[in-house]
Design a protein that fits this description.
alpha/beta, Isopropylmalate Dehydrogenase, 10-stranded mixed beta sheet, two-stranded antiparallel ribbon, IsoCit/isopropylmalate_DH_CS
């Protein structure tokens, strides 16, 4: 069994390096105790790098990412640094497209003790996963849209090949969740098939794939109705799958249900590669002050360990990922050591230290 793993590390912009450093320390401790090795390889990229060199994602960094077992990426981009066309620097999107990371995995979980703006009925629990297609959709022409004096156009692209991969991923995840007792085995296609032919096509492909999973349930929802139901009855969902732009919007709404982007992890997964990163931005207004929330970064690292462990058949690594997630959730639920965005006063290293202490006490 393989026990040495190469991890490409993108430290990011703004608060990115501040939340990555304690996350790597936690991973090193887990690997040391678990009997496996994580070799971290720093990769230059991002808005600050672009401002210095004119490159947002150097070829060497892309090569390192391609050769790694997993990619850990911190917050990227700075509002003040943009390409000549006015768009922000987004190496994470370039990685998704170059490595065909078609499945954007956005967990939404509200556990006992977690603060939420929802009025949660007693006995209800929210634990679902939004799967966002991450390589095409309305992001297809990113940076290549047509703009004239009087109009602008962007092209939405949905392909059968990518959609089939996406839906198989979603159904397989629902099957895994059901087997683990975390879901009811339900996959919901979120679209706008009543208005757009592209989404009718998307739904048709979904239905064809659903027929291959008779042990699972499936249904459909329009994206505007789903935004409403996120607020009214999020406990009814299991696995949701949708187009790129719809997923981009709904994932932030899901983060809001959990109390904010500071506790929202994510992954972008393909057939051969995967990137793990927090959903939030680089928050340059608080960079360098040591007050950034590291929990979404730590939860993303937990997702990486679970994914790698399952992929490589390394049970201890997968268990460490679950344990790291549980420890982070325990810190959030306890509420004594939270950063300012969650209503506390803890500093970055204090919040990360609380997770380490919870791990040691587990």
């Amino acid at each position: 069994m393989k026990d040495n793993f190469d991890i490409a590390v993108f430290h990011g912009d703004g608060i990115g390096p501040e939340i990555m450093a304690p996350t790597l320390d936690i991973l090193r401790d887990l690997a040391s105790l678990g009997g496996y090795r994580l070799s971290f390889h720093d990769c230059a990229a991002g808005a600050a790098h672009y401002a210095k060199t004119g490159e947002s994602l150097p070829a060497m960094s892309m090569q390192t990412a391609r050769q790694s077992d997993a990619i850990l990426l911190s917050a990227m981009g700075l509002p003040s640094v943009r390409y000549k066309d006015g768009t922000e620097i987004s190496p994470q999107i370039e990685l998704r497209k170059a490595l065909n990371l078609f499945a954007g995995v956005r967990p939404v979980r509200i556990f006992p003790g977690q603060k939420t703006p929802l009025n949660m009925p007693e006995g209800r629990e929210v634990d679902f996963v939004l799967i966002r297609e991450s390589t095409e959709g309305l992001f297809h022409t990113q940076g290549r849209g047509e703009v004239s004096q009087n109009e602008a156009r962007e092209t939405l692209l949905i392909t059968r090949e990518t959609s089939e991969l996406l839906f198989r991923f979603a159904f397989n995840l629902a099957r895994e969740r059901k087997a683990a007792g975390r879901g009811k085995g339900l996959v919901t296609c979120v679209d706008k098939a009543n208005v757009f032919r592209a989404f009718a096509f998307f739904r048709e492909i979904f239905d064809a794939q659903a027929a291959n999973y008779p042990d699972l349930q499936n249904d459909h929802a329009y994206v505007d109705a789903m935004a409403l139901w996120f607020v009214q009855r999020p406990w009814d969902f299991d696995v949701l799958v949708t187009e790129n732009m719809f997923g981009d919007i709904l994932s932030d709404l899901g983060a809001g249900l959990m109390g904010g982007l500071g506790v929202a992890p994510s992954a972008d997964i393909g057939l051969h590669h995967a990137v793990f990163q927090p959903c939030h931005g680089s928050a340059p207004d608080i960079a360098g002050q040591g007050i950034a929330n590291p929990l979404a970064m730590i939860l993303s690292a937990a997702m990486m360990l679970e994914w790698l462990g399952l992929r490589e058949g390394h049970a201890r690594m997968a268990a460490d990922g679950a344990q790291l997630r549980d420890a982070t959730e325990a810190v959030i639920a306890q509420g004594d050591v939270l950063t300012g965005d969650l209503g506390g006063s803890a500093r970055t290293l204090e919040a990360a230290g609380a997770v380490s202490a919870a791990l040691k006490g587990a």
